[in-house]
Amino acid sequence: MIDAAELLDLGDPDVVADPYPHFRVLRQRAPLARHSGLGMYVATGYEQCAQVLRERGMGRTFRPRVPAAEWETFNWLHADAILENEPPTHTRLRRLVQGAFGRGHVERLRPRIEELTAGLLDRCAERLAETGSFDVIAELAEPLPVLVIAELLGWPQDDRHLLRPWSQAIVKMYEVDRTPEQEAAAVRASDDFAAYTEQLAAERTSHPGDDLLSDLVRARDGADRLTTRELIATVVLLLNAGHEASVNGFGNGIVSLLESGGPAGAGAPLVEEMLRHDSPLQMFVRTAFTDVEISGTTIRAGESVAALLGAANRDPAVFEQPDRFVPERDPNRHLAFGLGIHFCLGAPLARLELEVGVEALLRRFGPLRVAEAHRRPTFVLRGYERMALTRG
User: Fold this and answer.
1) What is the pLDDT of residue 243?
2) Which of 110, 117, 290, 318 is the residue whose CA sits 20 to 30 A from 355?
């Protein structure tokens, strides 16, 4: 078996900037291959990634950071989160919180999301009039999902500015090339985020409101309910996972759309193609609990496989002309939100934010073009730091 590291160096700036040609070469050679740099297998084919995500003999195994004392809060924020658990714990946690994210419940948020979007686009219009362009990441893509989740949780208005920096610091720990400075920032953010959320949850216990945090405080199934740590871990996960998917999906998708020549579709099909063509989450790792077979290869108990979701979403065996952005593509069985029991809980909300945001942006400004764009130097969470748009 080939060493995937020879064809896919995740520390190479060229790979981070555009991994898709490298995915293509590796997929053609071996859609499931051992990667010596990562110390695990990597799956680049759609079928192989789907098997990894569905296989019940594989799951998430959170490995605590050490030293334990320094990383205590970061460790339990992950150990008690839905994403890092398997049945029966995963089943229990998801059952207690999933009601708030059903499609019908989320759809009722549409008017408020439209209102928030309109206010942010007013600021974009001011920037456009003043300078001839506006940063769609800073002015729309980043603030919109944070505003939405903050309103859902009933987060105090004066402290909403804390959420994005906390999340950005924590999610840098998911990359393959972390620095000591980033690790220290993640420790501080975990401690501060958890302490603030615990205090806010205690207030909602005594004085509940009409918000998601109050619902989580009250959430119970018979005698079962969330522990304090599980509640805090859920809130942190909702922000980190929820808004990262929306921010990066928006930025990546807008570039794909505009570079393809502009809108040729709208609504749900356009959003699905934005998520497929340049996926906001590129890698999801699962570990074998027992020996399992993936595409004819035996994965031994304790070995891990990284499902490279962006590679799967460009597999020509599933998607016709996979490198081409097709706004009206249907069907579109992409894996951007995962598959199986860990399918993204917040997917309906992320989809609604993207649909409302993109449609309002294009309706407000008409033809646009990218004047300048700077990608984040990250592989796992793929997105843009800045993106200046101007009239096309």
Assistant:
1) 78
2) 318
To the query of whether residue 214 is one of the catalytic residues in this protein, the response is no
Among 244, 272, 273, 355, the one annotated catalytic? 244
The single residue of 142, 272, 353, 355 carrying the catalytic annotation is 353
Contact status, residue 280 vs residue 381, Cβ threshold 8 Å: yes
For each of the domains in the chain, give its residue range(s) and CATH number, in order of start.
Answer: 4-391 (1.10.630.10)
pLDDT tens track for 299-316: 999 999 999 999 999 999
Residue segments in the chain with a per-residue pLDDT below the cut of 50: none
Look up 244 and say whether it is catalytic. Answer: yes
**Structure confidence by residue, pLDDT tens digits, 45-87:** 999 999 999 999 999 877 888 788 899 999 999 999 998 888 9
344 is catalytic: yes
Please tell me which residue in 50, 189, 219, 241 is annotated as part of the active site: 241
